[in-house]
Design a protein that fits this description.
Bound molecules: Phenylacetyl coenzyme A
Protein name: Ring-1,2-phenylacetyl-CoA epoxidase subunit PaaA
Number of strands: 2
Largest sheet: 2 strands, antiparallel
GO cellular component, one term: cytosol
GO molecular function, one term: phenylacetyl-CoA 1,2-epoxidase activity
Order of helices and strands: HHHHHHHHHHEEHHH
Pfam families: PaaA_PaaC (PF05138)
Shape: globular
Distance between the termini: 57 Å
Number of helices: 13
Strand content: under 5%
């Protein structure tokens, strides 16, 4: 049974009016947003690690400059998103603590290793491609600060996707047979984890119904996953690469590609912390936090001195 306040809130959402931080909101709405926005922020920050692994080994100055810019953008997205979460009454320190304690989730995709240079192109193409598919609708979500943050984030993600595809064009269309084989190997390893980024199937998605009613989600996990497959298959064809799914087939009746079954055991296993790089990723984040402690301490000491000076 909805209270009058809750009904009025739902009516605003249904009318497409944005909810702002100081507006009344149901506690569950606040909690859901803190959960999703903080997971999204953690994903951006942890997501710097797999690609950061290749900055010092980029094959040319141009590729290095592009990769540096991309990874820096991800840091920016993370900070932007932590700020959006803070408008809901949590602190960034709290959220970061949750991550470092292993209690907060971040996208499963960042628990896979980047083994070759082709992985960098493949991440841009598939991971950023999937991220855009999921985030363009979020520009229209009901919570003002999140929706506005997504506009800039999506513009940058589309550059990220483009640079990844451009890298793969170099390897697959202009490159040697060995380079093309390296790209195929990367696609074989990243394809299924990329499909898992959209989350569990609609039947298993616990939060979808409520989040759709609140317009935090506009499309379902399976709808976005299908769109991603439909968009990506022709791009693979242009590269001359084969998607590692024997069941992938155009279905003229549905007007979509049919695709094979996702290994949900693998997905849930990664969520439980048992993916190939989960431990390494958390260790790297904790280490970075500890290594940065002196900077935070110095900034606080400086701010306190300045405050004391102006108070005199
Ligand atoms: N990994 O009921 P649902 C990027 C969890 S893109 C880990 O369907 P919901 C850009 C889910 O949290 C990646 N956990 O949940 C980039 C929930 O667990 P909880 C980040 C997952 O929230 C590119 C449970 O499963 N993007 O970073 C995953 O309605 C390159 C049940 O699932 C976003 O976060 C998963 N893949 O839908 C950066 C976008 N999927 O919380 C660097 C915003 C599900 O109850 C390099 N988020 N879970 O413990 C969303 O749109 C939604 O949160 C979904 C999940 C669609 C991810």
């Amino acid at each position: 049974e909805m209270s009058a306040q809750e009904r009025a809130f739902q009516e605003r959402i249904d009318a497409g009016i944005k909810i702002e931080p100081k507006d009344w909101m149901p506690e569950a709405y606040r909690k859901t947003l803190i959960r999703q926005i903080s997971q999204h922020a953690h994903s951006e920050i942890v997501g710097m690690l797999p690609e950061g692994n290749w900055i010092s080994r980029a094959p040319s100055l141009k590729r290095k400059a592009i990769l540096l810019a991309k990874v820096q953008d991800e840091a920016g997205h993370g900070l932007y998103l932590y700020s959006a979460a803070e408008t809901l009454g949590v602190s960034r320190d709290q959220l970061v603590d949750e991550l470092h304690a292993g209690r907060a989730k971040y996208s499963s995709i960042f628990n896979y290793p980047t083994l070759t240079w082709a992985d960098i192109g493949t991440i841009g193409w598939l991971v950023d491609g999937a991220a855009i598919m999921n985030q363009i609708p979020l520009c229209r979500c009901s919570f003002g600060p999140y929706s506005r943050a997504m506009i800039r984030v999506c513009k940058e993600e589309s550059f990220h996707q483009r640079q990844g595809y451009d890298l793969l064009i170099s390897l697959c269309r202009d490159g040697t047979a060995e380079q093309k084989a390296m790209a195929q190997d990367a696609l074989n390893r990243w394809w299924w984890p990329a499909l898992m980024m959209f989350g569990p199937s609609d039947a298993e998605s616990v939060h979808s119904a409520q989040s759709q009613a609140w317009r935090i989600k506009i499309f379902s996990n399976d709808e976005l996953r299908q769109r991603f497959v439909d968009q990506t298959v022709p791009q693979a064809e242009y590269l001359g690469l084969t998607i590692p799914d024997p069941d992938l087939k155009w279905n003229a009746e549905r007007g979509h590609y049919d695709f094979g079954a996702i290994d949900w055991d693998e997905f849930y296993n990664v969520l439980k912390g048992n993916g190939p790089c989960n431990r390494e990723r958390l260790r790297a984040r904790r280490q970075a936090w500890e290594d940065g402690a002196w900077v935070r301490d110095a900034a606080i000491a400086h701010a306190e001195k300045r405050a004391a000076r102006t108070a005199q």
